[in-house]
Design brief:
The chain is of the alpha+beta class. Helix content is about 60%, strand content about 10%. It is elongated and about 70 Å long.
Length: about 200
């Protein structure tokens, strides 16, 4: 049976004003706490959660409410496994959303290359997207206090994104430094312009 200990927060917050209740809810989610019942949240009993407790008490005090903090463990194997599963499932869902966005990032770069869009503007846009993924990864990793297996796969996804962006950047710089007649061109230069209009500009023999 798992000997992991959990910190359980019993939060009794008034419905109004809603801002205190919503602020507490956001902090709990950001810290990786999982709901086990209405107004009851659990997360691993580790030193890293002490900051959350301070914020939770501040939100409760501002709302004229209270937060009861307990230390718990599964009394039987089934209960212990259930707590572990609740926490792991929450992390898996978050990491799955993250890796899906990583795949979208990779697909977007593939699309830009297929269109021959080797420009600094496109490169800057992709760099901003990668920065967003990196910030998201740090947030998820900070709340995954148990280091679930899904975090390893997410780490590999992020590395592939960084490597792919490096490859794209090299092609952008190569395109910009190459002579005009050698630079990669988009395959659809005349997209949206009818062929007959293009022929109008050809001098008559």
């Amino acid at each position: 049976m798992s000997e992991r200990r959990w910190m359980v927060l019993v939060c009794r917050m008034p419905a109004e004003p809603a801002r205190h209740r919503m602020a507490l809810w956001r902090d709990l989610r950001r810290a990786g706490a999982v709901p086990v019942a209405q107004g009851v949240w659990a997360l691993p009993d580790l030193p890293a959660v002490e900051t959350l407790l301070d914020r939770a008490r501040q939100h409760a005090a501002a709302a004229g409410a209270e937060v009861l903090v307990l230390t718990a463990a599964g009394r039987d194997p089934a209960s212990a496994a259930r707590l572990d599963a609740l926490y792991a499932d929450a992390r898996v869902q978050e990491w799955a959303e993250f890796t899906a966005d990583c795949d979208k990032f990779l697909a977007e770069i593939d699309k830009e290359e297929q269109l021959g869009k080797y420009t600094l503007a496109e490169l800057e846009e992709e760099e901003q997207s990668l920065d967003r993924l990196r910030r998201w990864y740090r947030d998820l990793r900070a709340r995954d206090l148990l280091g679930t297996a899904a975090s390893v796969d997410a780490d590999q996804h992020l590395k592939r994104c960084a490597e792919r962006l490096d490859q794209y950047a090299e092609r952008v710089y190569a395109a910009l430094s190459a002579p005009t007649d050698q630079a990669p061109a988009a395959p659809a230069v005349h997209v949206g312009r009818p062929a007959q209009d293009r022929d109008d500009n050809v001098p008559s023999p």
